[in-house]
Specification:
alpha+beta; TolA/TonB C-terminal domain
């Protein structure tokens, strides 16, 4: 035990002496080296201007609200103290030209009626599997009775018959809607059933 104690103390003294020599070693001289990246200017690229032909797009009518029925139609404005503007001198200058206004089928005096119906192609996969369904479309009928825009409001089963319904309804022609004796543009709903019978 005494021998172990002497050995441990001897090692400690030897290490302290050796460490002292390492600390006394001359410090090396440090040289700073700065690395700078040379930035080469990029060669200028020729930019060619390509003029595109501008097409004047026909103004799109705003789509009707989905699920927004005739909740506001039939409100008696006279009960609210409003009149048709005759007494107060109101005219089209307040609202602007309303010739391009789009109405909904429930607000017109005479709704549009189909006079020429195109056919609908039954999707082959649905026919093979015996799938039946329907598509409810919102159709923008122009004042001349042609179909301008179409969008799917509801379909069952979803996505199966949509493309066929959209393609088929575009070939339809309507008797235009009338409001106060004049033909008007109108959003109308049309339900198309797909049945194998």
């Amino acid at each position: 035990m005494v021998l172990g104690l002497v050995l441990v103390f001897g090692l400690i003294l030897w290490m302290n002496r050796y460490m002292g020599q390492v600390e006394k070693a001359p410090a090396q001289e440090v040289t700073d080296i700065a690395v700078a990246r040379e930035i080469k200017p990029e060669p200028k690229k020729e930019i060619k201007k390509v003029e595109t032909k501008r097409q004047v797009a026909k103004a799109q009518a705003p789509a009707p609200f989905k699920g927004f029925g005739a909740g506001l139609s039939g409100i008696d404005m006279g009960a609210l103290g409003l009149d048709d503007g005759q007494e107060r001198g109101l005219d089209d200058s307040l609202l602007g030209k309303t010739g391009n206004a789009v109405m909904t089928a429930d607000l017109v005096d005479v709704p549009p009626k189909p006079v020429a119906r195109g056919s609908f192609k039954y999707p082959p996969a649905a026919k093979k599997n015996g799938v039946k369904g329907y598509v409810v479309l919102s159709v923008l009928v122009e004042a001349d009775g042609s179909v301008n825009q179409v969008q799917v409001l509801e379909s069952s089963p979803s996505g199966i018959f949509d493309a066929s319904a959209l393609q088929g309804i575009r070939a339809w022609h309507f008797e235009p809607a009338k409001y106060k004796g004049e033909t008007v543009r109108v959003w109308a709903k049309q339900k198309i059933r797909f049945d194998l019978s």
